Amino acid sequence: MTASPVTASSAPASSVSGLARPTVDALRAKILHHLEYTLAKDAGHSSRYDWRMATSFAIRDEMLKPWFAATRQTYDTGAKRVYYLSMEFLIGRLLEDAMINLGLHETIAAALAAEGQTLSDIIEDEPDAALGNGGLGRLAACFLESMATVGVPAHGYGIRYEHGLFRQRFEGGQQVETPEDWLSQPHPWEFARPEAAYIVGFKGHSELRRGKSVWVPGETVKASAYDTPVVGWQGKWASTLRLWAGLPTTQFDLERFNNGDYTAAAAPEALARTLSRVLYPDDTTPAGKELRLKQEYFMTSAALQDILRRYQSQFSTLADLPKHVAIQLNDTHPAIAGPELMRLLMDQHDMGWDEAQTVARATLGYTNHTLLPEALERWSTYLMGSVLPRHMEIIQRIDEDHAKAHKRPPSVGIVQHNEVKMGDLAFIMSHKVNGVSALHSELVKETVFHDLHKLHPDRITNETNGVTPRRWMRLSNPALSTLLDETIGEGWTRDLDHLKTLEPFAQDAAFREKFAAAKRANKVALAGWVQDTMGIDINPDAMFDIQIKRLHEYKRQLLNCFETIALWHNMRQTPDAGWTPRVKFFGGKSAPGYFVAKEIIHLINDVARTINADPVTGHLLKVVYPPNYNVSMAQRLIPAADLSEQISTAGKEASGTGNMKLTLNGALTIGTLDGANVEIRDLVGADNFFLFGLTADGVEKRRKNINHAREAIEDSQNLRDVLQMIVEGRFSPEEPDRYHGLVDRAWHHDHYLVAADFDSYWEAQRAADALYRTPQDWNRKAILNVARSGFFSSDRTIRGYMADIWDVPSALKD
Ligand code: 26V
After folding, report:
1. What EC number(s) does its UniProt record assign (predicted)?
2. Could you tell me the domains of the chain?
3. DSSP state, 545?
4. Interval between CA 655 and ligand 1 midpoint (Å)
5. Which of 90, 131, 331 to mutate to test the pocket of ligand 1 (most atoms within 8 A of CB)?
6. Which of 246, 334, 434, 672 could cross-link with 693 by S-S, CB 3.0 to 4.6 Å?
7. How many CB atoms lie within 10 A of CB 409?
8. How many A from CA of 134 to the centre of ligand 1?
């Protein structure tokens, strides 16, 4: 052992109420213990990975106390439990999150320093757990943390994908995907629970036995559980993330193996493993693949079997299930839960049809996250009938019952045109259906569920999304967090509404200076990272303009790209016209098969290459598109943002959550009246938000004019110049006609109204430029954005679900 003598204080660093706090010495000893006895490594010959694992194990030990206490209290009090079923949990790194929530950040830093290790290096060594595509998966992760903070007895259920969201590289400016392999190293936060395993069937047929339908599956797999504890702020409560891995149900075929048929011997294992092999990276269209349907059923069935097993270990009457259990469906991906819960209640627990349906409906809630028709799941009745024959029978009867009970218009019905509409199934089988922002919930009533809403006017409700202030402020923005602590106290971390008390400081010049200094420090740090990783030199005093999100036509990165070209073009013509220097950041992945989104990525990279090489505008404009945007990169970019780009075609973005994170971190928004932007603008004030573009109604009207794009382009000299430059190959001289298709679509098939909104966007951008040139005004507005964004805590969202949907009180006393 080559450890240096203890030099750091042995007194506990920061405090966590209600928790016995380990000292620096105690944690140092724990880390060394795990290094030696868990990892069998000598401290003198340990790698960064070894130190990270040992540190993670030491912190995990500290999570067990609140986790056990929460579990025990839930059993002892018979409290109602919440189950959040989601195909995606976009967790990111866990080490720093756990340390911060347990109040151990400084203690661990000191313990590691005493061993000659640097905490930040160890934090950076952890791979992101990227078991999600974007907003929907990240929301699920924020909810788990908020449920642990607010005191909800909660489990998240999902799939333990071996490969999370693909890694993105750029080759010649084009996106190239490589598999992600976060499990190639052991994941220190999880506990394998081989004793919690369930059989999940597929295919086969349904037959009548003594008057009862019985499903005889043709294939079976085993779902085996892995648990990760999630501790809330100050370790007062904890929730559990239970992820399922696929295992074979049949024993390894030794005879085949001995006969040399190795492939056949391993076949059942390969088949089962496929179910938890990879996350579907396409969030625009149903993958249309049998495997995707099987994955959804695999997760849902295992979760429901586990929920019923836990329920029956505590309570006797299944009719009381909704009194003790609330199950939330994160989009339609687990919508098979309705028929599956009914099947389990009827076929395995002898409940009658009507009661099973009543119980299932009272237990389930469904959250809709998109209105895009191409993202609404539908499965062919053929596929559903062959993969889940018993469920297909149940779905058909649910549909018939519903038709009988309500005078339905012909457009209503779960099964239509030989397809099962999973949204309608989820709606009919849930007691509450919610949208994720005020505008979205209204549009849900008017569009996708127009007819069902008429039949069930009390069912649809709104729960505006939120984000956890622990990760998205305290962890990612220590500079601003410390300033807030000093100015208004630490209370904002638990109750984000405390930010209101910051409002008067917007008028205080000395505070504005400090606020600006915190932002600048974050920008300097980001500039250093950009220089180190991409070799691009950027000016931290330029406006940092940031658009980070999945690549989608409706999110309109193309509009931002066109404006970037127009800005550059104008700057080149009059470089001395007093321009506000800018750095445009883009970040985001396209679905691998989404050709148009990939073409937009290519264009942005071509534009970046051209602009960044221009000596005329070098001091005025840079474009930065770091590859492989993920949760950790978001944590780096968001605290450094001045301007938040939320520019989707109105009516298309259900909510957005990046918009909330950026506002909270003191960026001003340039945005359309879409999703939660509407609520952000209402709260921060119209004067503190750069609004542009058509409204959702305006979009619908404008589309009726088939010449909308051509007319807008003809009216805009700026936009004509942009399209001309692209078409001439200004950004792709090696292949001048590279973007002819893109430009042609801009003229003739502009479904997302890029052209119609271009001039209005340009004006709003110039207003942002002007304001940025008066720093005290910009900073005043930025401070007001922070002070007025307390509403966007996911703690508030969770309290909304508890009151409106789950009927669950907090298990915490205060
Ligand atoms: C659909 C599919 C289809 C099959 C393949 C995998 C897959 C994955 C996701 C989806 C639907 C995605 C819906 C979605 O991500 N909605 C986003 O939800 C966020 C949280 O509520 C919200 O902030 C975003 O505005 C919304 O786009």
Report:
1. 2.4.1.1
2. 1-77+95-127 (no CATH), 80-92+132-465 (3.40.50.2000), 487-699+754-792 (3.40.50.2000)
3. E
4. 10
5. 331
6. 672
7. 12
8. 7
Q: Which of 149, 300, 468, 657 is catalytic?
A: 657
Most confidently modeled of 45-59, 241-255, 265-279? 45-59
Q: What is the DSSP letter of 684?
A: H
pTM: 0.96
Q: Known catalytic residue: 421?
A: no
> What sign for the dihedral angle of Cα 205, 206, 208, 214?
positive
Residue whose pair of structure tokens reads 């042609």 in the numeric block: 744
Ligand 1 midpoint to CA 16 (Å): 36
By residue count, the chain amounts to 814
Is the CB of residue 166 less than 8 Å from the CB of residue 178?
A: yes
At residue 793, φ and ψ (nearest 5 deg) are -75, 135
**Catalytic residue flag (residue 289):** no
Ligand 1-lining residues (CB < 6 angstroms) = 133-136, 139, 280, 282-283, 286-287, 292, 331, 369-370, 375, 436, 465, 653-657, 675
CA-436 nearest atom, ligand 1: 21
Which token pair is 767? 């207003």
Burial of residue 810, with CB atoms counted within 10 A of its CB: 0-12 exposed, 13-18 middle, 19 or more buried: middle
Dist CA 563 CA 641 (whole Å)? 18
Ligand 1 pocket: which of 136, 285, 660 to mutate (most atoms within 8 A of CB)? 136
Q: What is the pLDDT of residues 280-295, one digit of tens each?
A: 988 777 777 899 999 9
Query: What pairing do the DSSP bridges indicate for beta strands 205-209 and 212-216?
Result: antiparallel
Alpha carbon 315 to chain centroid, angstroms: 34
Task: Answer yes or no: 657 catalytic.
Answer: yes
